[in-house]
Amino acid sequence: MGKPKNAAMNNVIQFRSGEWTGRKLEGLAVAWGLTRHEAARRLMVLAMYRLSLDHYPAIGRLEQAVGGGQSFLRACDQAGAALDACAASRRENLQSPMTEWERAEFLEEWSTRFTDPPIGLPGELKPATAGEGSGSGSPWPACSSRIRPS
To answer: Rounded to whole angstroms, how far apart are CA atoms 132 and 24?
Structure first.
């Protein structure tokens, strides 16, 4: 009897990083308080969800709020879904796609609303601020008030 089919989804991935990449990875691992292996895994997960190092602080807050096993992956999944929903909202409203800076700003605001909720139900979003989504200073529509973390 062979291995179960789902065992192929949990393969060990190994590569030699090279000196320069190894140094950068070591620096991130130290800054994040992780092993090099975990830092590399997190970089891979960020890339899978089209996130970058700019998003790491917001993802870190979400990770703490999510808790439990695979919390970093689940935080990235939540953030990716929020960014995708915001992008869809912008398309529906015939707005241009968010720039990388706008994506980082949106994720920062959205994750703060999730991790620092108002008094009320856990995970409840704060009400939208005046002018949010109305084009008066906000780089995105009111999608941040429509997307609820699960």
So the answer is: 38
